Amino acid sequence: MASAGATAPPVAAAARRPRSRTVPTWVWALPPVAVLGFVFLYPLGLVVQESLAPGAYADVLASASFRDALVTTVWLAAGATVGCLVLGFALALVVAFVPFPGARAVSRFIDVFLSFPSFLITLALLFVYGTVGMANGLWTGATGAAEGPFHFLTTPWGVLLAEITYFTPFVMRPLLAAFSQLDTAQLEAASSLGARPARIVRRVILPEALPALAAGGSLVLVMCLNEFGIVLFTGAKGVTTLPMLVYSKAILESDYAAACVVAVVNVAISVGLYAVYRVVSRRAGA
Amino acid sequence: MLVHSRGGRWASWLAFAVLFVPLFAVPLLVIVAASFSTHWSGAFPSGPTAEHYTAAVRGESLQALTTSLVTAAAASLLALTLGTWAALTAASLRGRGRRILDALFVLPLAVPSVVVGLAVLVAFSRPPLLLNGTRWIVILAHTVLVTAFAHQSVSAAVRRLDPVYEQAAAGLGARPSYVLLRVRLPLLLPSLGAAAGLCFALSMGELSATMMLYPPDWMPLPVLVFTATDRGSLFTGSALAVVLMATTLLVLLAVSRIRTRASYR
Known about the structure:
By secondary structure, chain A is mostly helical. Helix content of chain A is about 75%, strand content about 0%. The longest helix of chain A has about 35 residues, at about 65-95.
């Protein structure tokens, strides 16, 4: 970086512009805001406008399919978040505090895992638990039964399993970052004073990890609410979430007014939760 | 070290392996294994073949791959420009202006991608700008979706930037444009690389908004993976998925090579 000055033209000779001729800083903010406004805010505004078509809200809010989708979305997201938090905390504990050869490789693997699209998990689960997949194949081979016992893939449980699998790394990453800040002397002190591992986790590690858990958990909650790929790939008729309902109303039924109503509800829930996440993660310093 | 007894350590490693391997490692291995087989009805796949790959690098699939690559490259470039501009401007603003700008550029993260797709579809199927049915609508939607990520990672990097360098340059009489081009942007280069890699990976795997928008002649790879699995060709689908994962990883690897070289300069 030091070489940047050496190759530079003699800047000292260039007189500084008088202050009055420089544009105020906020003018520089206008071009990106204008672009974002045109490609994002204006479209979003049109969605709100379309949703206000006469009778659209009343029709959609009264329909059973919407209420089912709302309930399914919320409980799936809540369940997946709890699952991710428990699983992510347990796994991160082992990686950080009971290190083993290859623990670093595991955290690299998690980073890579995050860069893959979510629907790959559902695709993989089709081979593992699908009607002719690995688990059912093993069962029929071992017992001679006509078909295996695993049929949960096209039910909400399949979606839940896929979401927990895909989103747990999103909890583990901030947790591992928080654990690396934790002074291990605290653990040594607690354990030399006779505290057992369970007590150390509860009294020393958990309080330190709470901010990271809260931030990771609320991020996962928002992402689960908005997850589409996993549900689409499951191909289950019985599992409809809000994003799935937006897609099927708009593309399959060409009912744009209804799609816009569902979209507005979905945006309201997820933007509200995301605001909570921002507040929580800022307080956590993440 | 949390667990001191030998038995306790082994027990926790065993628990870790029992949870980690089936949940995270097996799915990826299963996709790779399936992509090389024709049949899977027992513990292991059968009928080894490379046929799916010869099909995956030809015709429709090859076109989908290039479509995805072009879309991801264009969207990342646009998003990086837009996000960096906003992040740099926000850093020099103070108080409310900065908060509003940051909140605006983070907003696409909180809006479901399906809704972004719907909004873009609604807005650009009518005047003043008709993009529906062209490739530009897909690129536009991807740009909107990844801009927030670009903005977030660049503005985190801007916050970590030591202000001493720019102050020194400005103190020596460098004009703001010169400070930006010769001091701040070179210092930010590694973070810009990281942001570009993130945007590229996200755009390569984007499915939700794309499903709402794609025209028949601009079908990205994730959509092709979906149509293949949807009509029951699971093995072809997993070969395509492996191609998708491998391409994403290769690009990420290349970006991180460039990044390390940039940070040594």
